[in-house]
């Protein structure tokens, strides 16, 4: 079983690629479950609604809520699925917290790693796909998207999305053995093919 995560700015195509990878693996007989953060369980979904309703300025408060949602998510969905041999594919995980509350809002990263280890445990993704996209394209996509969940991040200027992108790329350098950077400014089927190939390499190791 594998724990696969997708990261990137809003509008980078994570939801689409999560669905395509899931369908691809299921067509090959692999049991999969898809989920997202914050969310995935009733309690975590309630916390998600609170977090996305309006911005929580204090990064410690925000991270504490995310950590509570993440623990419930892992305890009641992710870990039980992995124990049963089911591959879990998750839209966002701890990397997003490191970028948004850590690198963007200034929360100490060592503090975040310590809390994460104590509250959530040692679970780490087998592989993370970072869908990388220029902030100008992100803004265009968000403005013309009619079906996505609207939140307070959508109204942020290009500079915000630029800093988020830079944060994810910094993490990709630090955790290069786990995080695979995918150019998201290409046809959907090309992105999916690249993801399929990278996942196949994981299963052969």
Write the layout of secondary structure elements.
Blueprint: E1 3-7, H1 14-27, E2 32-36, H2 42-53, H3 59-83, E3 87-91, H4 94-104, H5 109-119, E4 127-132, H6 135-144, H7 158-174, E5 179-183, H8 188-204
Parallel strand pairs: 1-3, 1-4, 2-3, 4-5
Helix pairs in contact: 1-8, 2-3, 3-4, 3-5, 4-7, 6-7
Task: Provide an overview of this structure.
With 205 residues, the protein is α/β, with parallel strands linked by helices. It has a single domain (3-204), classed as Rossmann fold (3-Layer(aba) Sandwich). 57% of the residues lie in helices and 13% in strands. The protein is built from 8 helices and 5 strands; from the N terminus they run E-H-E-H-H-E-H-H-E-H-H-E-H. Strands 2-3-1-4-5 form a 5-stranded parallel β-sheet, sandwiched between helices. The protein is globular and about 45 Å long. The model has no long low-confidence stretch (mean pLDDT 92). Phosphorylation of dTMP to form dTDP in both de novo and salvage pathways of dTTP synthesis. One of its GO terms (cellular component) is cytosol. It catalyses: dTMP + ATP = dTDP + ADP.
């Amino acid at each position: 079983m594998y724990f696969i995560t997708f990261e990137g700015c809003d509008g980078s195509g994570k939801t689409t690629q999560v669905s395509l990878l899931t369908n691809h693996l299921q067509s090959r007989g692999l049991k999969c479950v898809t989920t997202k953060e914050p969310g995935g369980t009733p309690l975590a979904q309630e916390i998600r609604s609170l977090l996305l309703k309006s911005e929580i300025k204090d990064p410690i408060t925000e991270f504490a809520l995310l950590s509570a949602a993440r623990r419930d998510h892992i305890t009641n969905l992710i870990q039980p699925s992995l124990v049963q041999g089911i591959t879990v594919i998750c839209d966002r995980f701890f990397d997003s917290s490191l970028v948004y509350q850590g690198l963007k809002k200034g929360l100490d990263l060592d503090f975040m790693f310590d809390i994460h280890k104590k509250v959530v445990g040692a679970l780490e993704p087998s592989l993370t796909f970072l869908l990388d996209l220029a902030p100008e394209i992100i803004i265009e996509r968000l403005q013309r998207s009619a079906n996505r969940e609207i939140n307070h991040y959508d109204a942020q200027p290009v500079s915000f999305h630029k800093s988020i992108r830079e944060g994810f790329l910094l993490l990709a350098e630090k955790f290069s053995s786990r995080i695979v950077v995918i150019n998201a400014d290409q046809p959907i089927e090309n992105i999916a093919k690249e993801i399929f190939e990278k996942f196949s390499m994981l299963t052969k190791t």
